[in-house]
Amino acid sequence: MLVEEIRVKNSYTRESKLGKEHVYTRFKTVLRFICDCCEKEFFRDRGNMDPNRINNNYYHVCGNCDAKRFAQEKGVDKRRIWNIGVNTDIPINKL
Ligand SMILES: [Zn+2]
Fold first, then answer.
1. Percent of the chain scored above 70 by pLDDT?
2. Which protein residues have their CB within 5 A of the ion that is ligand 1?
3. Which of 42, 52, 75, 81 is deepest in the core (most CB within 10 A)?
4. Ligand 1: distance of its center to the CA of 43 in Å?
5. How many angstroms separate the CA atoms of 19 and 14, rounded?
């Protein structure tokens, strides 16, 4: 589950041609997630993410969990949902 976007300021130091040290800063955006599998908090760089997946229409699984295994178990959940009946108010993207 996507929780929030955090802007992180990073400071880097580079050495100039004359040997002077220059400090420069860069911002990057980090996304905070709660793992849909183990419910632990984890972070991921926004730049490393597929922009289409930065929303809660998708499940987000942390690096310690096996995403493929999680997806398989979700398939089982889906079948259980279908057994409930057709007139539930579960949105189509949660199936
Ligand atoms: Zn996890």
1. 84
2. 35, 37-38, 62, 65
3. 42
4. 11
5. 9
pLDDT at 2: 95
Phi-psi region of 14 (alpha: psi -120 to 50; beta: other; left: phi over 0): beta
Cα(79) to centroid of ligand 1, in Å? Answer: 23
Mean pLDDT of 37-51: 93
pLDDT of residue 80: 72
**In the chain, how many domains are there?**
1
pLDDT at position 44, please? 94
Q: What is the pLDDT of residue 74?
A: 82
User: Does the residue 7 lie in any domain?
Assistant: yes
Look over the chain and give the mean of its residue pLDDT values, rounded to a whole number: 87
Has residue 92 been placed in a domain? no
Residue-range definition of the domain harbouring residue 61: 2-86
How deeply is 9 buried, as exposed, middle or buried, from its count of CB atoms within 10 A (0-12, 13-18, 19+)? exposed
